[in-house]
Amino acid sequence: MKVYLVRHGQVDSNLKKIYNISEEEDINENGIQQAEKLKEKIKNIDFDVIYCSPFLRARHTADIINSRNKEIIIDNRLKERDLGNLVGKPIECTNREMYWDYYADIKYGTEEPIQSLFKRVNNFLNELKNKNYNKVLVVAHCGVSRAFYVYFNGIPKDGKLLNLGLKNAEMVEYVFGDGGKKHHP
Fold it and tell me: For residue range 99-126, what is the model confidence (pLDDT) as tens digits?
């Protein structure tokens, strides 16, 4: 089974470099354009189904790129890492390298531990790999993309994951049983 993972289009908090302020923050005009470009690139891929985070920015991106009107299944395990009391704060209030270090023993407040994020994403992927699909599209978030990377490639020896996340409206392809990622298209 091929799994195509997409990060949602750009939102204003990405531009302002603040921890996302709301589950209901929508993609901005640039995010819409990014999703439209991606839709054109993937229009010939016949997905069996689309799984999506419940966050508005992911749902809106999924709606735009769903050119074949496939079923979209909302799955709470695809939510972004819960930011707790970091919501609305500038990202430089944390050491980003440490925030996305699997082995770091640091907590900035009430945010979800990285291990918890990875556990719920692993649960989703373990369930997905037992389904009878050929091609699946998943629309989620940067943190979720790091969890996908680790699921298919393992945790880097140094535990550093900051630079392993997808950019806005970027897509990567994974294959169950094949390991590793392949960029697409």
Answer: 999 999 888 989 999 999 999 999 999 9
- DSSP structural state of residue 46: -
Residue 126 and residue 151: Cα distance in Å, rounded? Answer: 10
Residues with Cβ < 8 Å from 117, sequence gap 6 or more? 81, 82, 143, 144, 147
Question: What six digits make up the tokens of 53?
Answer: 């985070």
Instruction: Note whether 111 and 84 are within 8 A (CB).
Output: yes
Calpha distance 39→66 (Å, rounded): 7
- Domain 2-176: state its class: alpha beta
Per-residue exposure over 12-21, b if at least 16 CB sit within 10 Å of its own CB, e if not: ebbeeebbbe
Domain positions in the chain are 2-176
Quick check: 185 pLDDT over 60?
A: no
Q: Dihedral of CA 54/56/57/61: which sign?
A: positive
Angle of helix 142-153 versus helix 114-128 axis, rounded to 10: 70
Tokens of 139: 């629309």
Strands (DSSP E) found in 38-180 = 49-52, 72-74, 135-140, 171-175
Q: Residue 180 above 70 pLDDT?
A: no
- Residue-wise pLDDT for 48-98, tens only, equals 999 999 999 999 999 999 999 999 999 999 999 999 999 999 999 999 999
Yes or no: say if 38 and 5 are a contact pair by the CB < 8 Å rule: no
